[in-house]
Design a protein that fits this description.
Blueprint: H1 38-62, H2 86-96, H3 123-135, H4 139-166, H5 168-179, H6 193-208, H7 212-222, H8 229-245, H9 247-253, H10 256-264, H11 267-280, H12 285-293, E1 297-298, H13 302-312, H14 323-345, H15 350-364, E2 366-367, H16 373-376, H17 385-391, H18 396-420
Antiparallel strand pairs: 1-2
Helix pairs in contact: 1-4, 1-5, 1-18, 2-3, 3-4, 4-5, 4-6, 5-17, 6-7, 6-8, 7-8, 7-10, 8-10, 8-15
Length: 424
Amino acid sequence: MAAKDEGTGATAGTPPGEEPGERAGRRPRLPEAARPYLPPLALYGVTKLAGLAVFAVLLEWAGDYRGKEPRFGGGAHWWDVLSTWDGWWYLQIAEHGYRPSLVRLDTDGLFTVQQNSVAFFPLYPALIRLVSEATGLGLYGAGILVSVVSSFIAAAGIYAVIRLVVGVRAGTIAAGLWAVAPGAGVEWAVYSESVFVAIASWACYCVMTRRWVAAGLLACLAGLNRPTSAVLIGAVGLAALVTVLRRDSRREHGLAGPVYAMVVAPLGLAAYIAWVGYATGEPTAYFTLQREGWAHFFDYGAYTLDVLRNTAVGKHDYVFAFAVPDLLAVQLVLALPFLIALMLRKRPPLVLIAYTLATIVTVLGTQQMFGNTGRYLLPAFPLLIAPAAALARLKAPSLTVFFTTAALASGWYAHYVIFELGVP
């Protein structure tokens, strides 16, 4: 029998005024601050699941993955495809760590340096190893779990940022749009995009809400995840610098926070690139690996222009040519000026403008697999501001039709095309 509190008549352990058993029947409730995130996360999750289901059906129907090497787009099951290509490298790092080296090849071809795992940044594989050790999951399962959880954090960050610019409804829709964006197939694969966008979106949010210490730390963390973190670091630094230079904002926000963000933001990226140089014995080893091991380097848009010229006349006389992914990427590139103009009309904060434009310049100005342009532009989530604002005017039935169609179609253009018709 339960003991009674003398003087109150309440059961021991039960707050005064509450009947015994009332607490046991009470359902756990989400904190008030978390509730606004439920609709965007639900929309994102359902949309992604639909796209992934279509991807699985297409893979099984075609069956081509069964004849490919597990490292290069193949496997025993359809889900194995999600850990191929770059995913293979990440899993190798998670299991064995790095073995830094810069080995020259005796060839005059496109690749003159042996590919090495240090071209891939350490944060994502470290998270895979940590989750695997903590949960008992294998490295593949841990990698998928990290990507899926990070994708929801990213969707929440996109919602938070775009809500501040064009409202709650548009923010919710933007989270759904990110699920069906070109290249979105890597969001639930063993790839580092979801982790990066999770960090980048919340870093931008912290800048917009003047949380400078958090913004600097997040940008620093992003520098351990992808080389493209340079655009986020630059955007955070520029926003901090403008805050320091303007008298009114300097009075309101002080100097310490923005200066801290400027100083801390580049440390992660700089430290990793310096470590690669030290470990291999060549200070510029990371850039050498990118250029001569993967044929990825900044060429001021020469490669992009070459692809556009070739595809315009139906030719594929260029490096890394993949007909279907390249054609879809051309359409995306042609839409960029329109998306940029519409984004600027909404007058987003400086950090979003700088981050988005720098991302686009980096992607279009670099020689890399053109068919992956959609994947490379996934971090440029502020481009969703105008489409999300426009769709926010639609009623629920119209939005349901739109997202149902887009989700099913994304199983092909955002998943199957990049994993099976190209190289993600």
